[in-house]
Amino acid sequence: MATGSRFLLIILAGASSVARAQSTITITTWNIEHLGSSGRGFGGGFGAGSLPMRTTEDLKKIATLIKNDLKADVLALQEIGIGMLEGGRSRSGELNTIVSELGSTWEYFLPPVASIPADDENMFCALLWNAAKVNALDLFVMEVPNHELAGRALFDRRPVVGYFEARKDGVGTNDFILVSVHLASGQDHEENHLIAVTVIEHELNKSLADNEVQESDRIILGDFNDNPFAKTEAGNQKYSPALYAHMAFKGYTDLVSADTGATRMDSNLTSIIDHILVSKSAKLHIPTTQAKKFVPGDSSTFGPWRATFSDHFPLSFEMKVENSDDDVDFD
Among 29, 104, 216, 287, fewest CB within 10 Å belongs to which? Predict the structure, then answer.
């Protein structure tokens, strides 16, 4: 072999090693179905019916799923109940148990409240993360107008914002924004969902500025209760796709597609209602175009799985951990 060819192979091998060494963090969104509040089993689908609150063993299984199967480092969660107030912070006994099982480096954030809400109103968005893998630089509830538009209030649950920084060798590197959302229930409220997400995208600059944050890597994720892929019996578009067209125009990519399949275990497995909208800047750090869905076996296992876990499947994607923060923040 010629010396030049051998030198080229060495370079290529070195490049391959660098690629393999590229570290990532895993980000997951998951509607965990009434964690800490009554109402589990509502909405039909596999395993539907009145379901009890989770046992300690159930919560330990959820922690094991997060650690061993999802391998998640940061989670945007929906449908978390607040069980207690401690030192001005909202806390969940169920999340406390999950965090205890995950380990001492795990933390979570729930919206602050003046008092524990009534049970039928006790569902919130939350963030859960491994502080060994990311730094939580700021955490807050997004202040958004909550008008009633297109038949529903825009926000039954206000979005929760996390400003995170990935860690590499114990040092903070690239940072990013996560906005955990849960839009109004009912897929036929697509106009309401369009307005809600438009408000989030438009108001996010102000909300970040109010908290002295400037960051262009933005990810809006969660339960949108909106399925742009649904078809009528005649094969026509069932609901408006305007939300996703608008966000694409704004530079966002949805990591959920028709190929993702059902994200909620409705009886026909056609409900694709959880989404991950990634800004153009954030997409530079995400090496995939589609989220990975965790599916627990085949449909024969879905009912029993729901009894412990949820009627939604977790959706995950990886973000590269860079050597430094190289995104262009907004002025």
Answer: 104
b/e map 286-304, b = 16+ CB within 10 Å: beeeebbbeebeeeeebee
Single-letter residue type at 235: G
CA distance 195 to 192: 5
Task: Say if residues 214 and 208 touch (Cβ distance below 8 Å).
Answer: yes
Whether 56 has a pLDDT exceeding 80, the answer reads yes
- Token pair for residue 327? 């995104």
- Is the pTM value of this prediction over 0.90? yes
CA–CA distance, 245 with 197 (Å, rounded to integer): 12
User: Cβ-count burial of 61 within 10 angstroms (0-12 exposed, 13-18 middle, 19+ buried)?
Assistant: middle
What's phi and psi for 124, nearest 5 deg?
Answer: -135, 160
Residues 303 and 167: their CA atoms lie apart, in Å, by 38
**pLDDT at residue 22 above 90?**
no
Q: Kindly give the pairing relationship between strand 253-254 and strand 292-293.
A: unpaired
What whole-number distance in Å separates Cα of residue 35 and Cα of residue 83?
10
Encode pLDDT of 99-150 as tens digits: 999 999 999 999 999 999 998 899 999 999 999 999 999 999 998 998 999 9
Give the phi and the psi of residue 11 in degrees, each rounded to 5.
Answer: -65, -45
**pLDDT tens digits, one per residue of 254-277:** 999 999 999 999 999 999 999 999
Sheet holding 124-130, edge to edge: 106-109, 124-130, 74-80, 24-35, 315-320, 292-293
212 sits in which H/E element: none
Is the Cβ–Cβ distance between 127 and 106 less than 8 Å?
Answer: no
The count of other CB atoms within 10 Å of the CB of residue 229 is: 19
Tell me the pLDDT band of 325, cut-offs 50, 70 and 90: confident
Of 144, 74, 147, nearest in space to 109 by CA: 74
DSSP category for residue 231: B
Q: Are 277 and 252 in contact (CB under 8 A)?
A: yes
